[in-house]
Design goal:
The protein is an alpha/beta fold and 339 residues long. Helix content is 45%, strand content 15%. The termini are far apart.
C-alpha cells in the first residue's frame, strides 16, 4: 500500500498542501477548524511525515552528532544520558560515535557526521588530539560545535568542562591536611588538557603547602582509563621504595589498579598508603577499601552542552547573533575509606 502523503490529505480536505503542512505544524495562520480537520484525518490515515522532505524544506535534520573518546568510561555514559535527555526534550535525535582515543579516527568520525548532515556536533577530544584544524574547518561551514570535558582552549567555540586544576588542588590539599607528605601522582598522557591541568593542580598544592615538588614521584599512565596502567605503576612504586604515603590518581580506574596491586602485596590502605581517585565511578563505592574521589558532574555536563549546542543551532537558523560560552561546572570531593 502506497504511503499517505501530505498531498493526499490536502486533496481530501480540498485545501492546499501548504495549508495542510501549516496545520500539522500548529501555525497560527490556520484556522482552528482547519487545523483540527487536518490532524483528525492525518491520525485516521496513519500519516507519517516524510523526514527527508521536511529536512530539505527546513534545511535541518534535527540530529546532533556526539563523539566521545571511549564508551566504557562510566563518566561518559552519564554524559550521554544527559545529552539524550536534553536532545529528546527539544526534539532532536542523537548519533553517538567514539574515537577510541585516536586522532585519525576522530577526524573520520567528524567527516561521517558531516555526511549525515547533522545540525551540530558535541565532542570530547581524544588523548592524541593536539591541533584542531579539523574542528575549525567545520566551524567555518557554520556547523556549531561544543567541546566538553577534554577541551582545547585554542578552538573558538563553546566549551563545557570542570576546573581540573582546582579539583586536583583540592584533592591533594585534603591529603596534605590529613598529614600525608610524600604524595605521588599517577598522571595521564602528556597531551590532553585535563591531564595537564590535574598535574598542575597536584604540583601547586604541594608548593602552596610548603612541600617540595619531586618529579620522581610522578608516574606516567599513557592511557588515562587503563586499569593495568595503575597496577603496573603501583608495582614500580613499591620497587622504588621512595617512602610514598599517598597517591593522587588521574582517574578512578587507575586508582582501582593501584588498590589491587597494594592488596595483593599486603600494603594497608590508608594506613601505609592513602589513595585518591578522580570521577567517582560507581565502582569507587564498592571496591575494598572504598575509594575517595572527585565527583565529576557527567550528566549535567552532557545536558548543558546539548542545551548550548541547540541554542546555537536555533540562532544560526534565525540569523540571531550569539556569543560562545565557556561553562565551568563545579566539582566536589567524596571521602571514603582509602584516605
Amino acid at each position: 500500500m502506497k504511503p499517505i502523503t501530505l498531498k493526499d490529505i490536502a486533496l481530501e480536505l480540498n485545501i492546499s498542501v501548504t495549508t495542510a503542512s501549516k496545520a500539522l505544524q500548529g501555525r497560527s495562520d490556520v484556522s482552528n477548524a482547519t487545523r483540527e480537520a487536518v490532524i483528525k484525518l492525518a491520525e485516521k490515515l496513519n500519516y507519517v511525515p516524510n523526514s527527508v522532505a521536511v529536512n530539505l524544506r527546513t534545511r535541518q535534520t534535527k540530529t546532533i552528532g556526539v563523539i566521545i573518546p571511549t564508551i566504557v568510561h562510566q563518566f561518559f555514559s552519564k554524559v550521554i544520558d544527559g545529552i539524550i535527555e536534553e536532545a529528546e526534550k527539544q526534539g532532536y535525535f542523537v548519533i553517538t560515535l567514539q574515537s577510541n582515543e585516536n586522532f585519525e579516527f576522530e577526524k573520520k568520525q567528524l567527516q561521517l557526521l558531516m555526511q549525515k548532515r547533522v545540525d551540530g556536533i558535541l565532542i570530547s577530544l581524544s588523548n592524541q588530539t593536539q591541533q584542531c584544524k579539523h574542528l575549525n574547518e567545520i566551524l567555518q561551514k557554520n556547523i556549531p560545535i561544543v567541546i566538553f570535558d577534554k577541551i582545547n582552549k585554542l578552538v573558538n567555540c563553546s566549551k563545557v568542562s570542570i576546573d581540573d586544576q582546582m579539583a586536583a588542588y583540592n584533592s591533594v590539599s585534603y591529603l596534605i591536611k590529613k598529614g600525608y607528605k610524600r604524595i605521588a601522582h599517577f598522571r595521564g598522557s602528556l597531551m590532553p588538557q585535563n591531564s595537564i591541568d590535574r598535574f598542575l593542580g597536584y604540583k601547586k598544592a604541594l608548593i602552596d603547602h610548603g612541600i617540595e615538588f619531586d618529579s620522581s614521584l610522578v608516574y606516567l599512565c599513557d592511557n588515562n582509563d587503563d586499569f593495568n596502567d595503575g597496577y603496573i605503576n603501583a608495582q614500580k612504586l613499591l620497587k622504588d621504595q621512595n617512602n610514598v604515603d599517598a597517591i593522587f590518581a588521574i582517574t578512578d580506574l587507575i586508582a582501582v589498579g593501584i588498590l589491587k596491586c597494594f592488596n595483593e602485596n599486603g600494603v594497608k590502605i590508608p594506613e601505609d598508603i592513602a589513595v585518591f581517585g578522580f570521577s567517582d565511578w560507581f565502582m569507587s563505592s564498592v571496591v575494598t577499601p572504598t575509594l575517595s574521589s572527585v565527583v565529576q558532574p557527567g550528566f549535567e555536563m552532557g545536558r548543558k552542552s546539548t542545551e548550548i549546542l541547540i541554542e546555537e543551532i536555533k540562532n544560526l537558523n534565525t540569523n540571531t547573533p550569539y556569543a560562545f560560552q565557556n561553562i565551568v561546572l563545579p566539582t566536589s570531593l567524596v571521602i571514603r575509606e582509602s584516605t
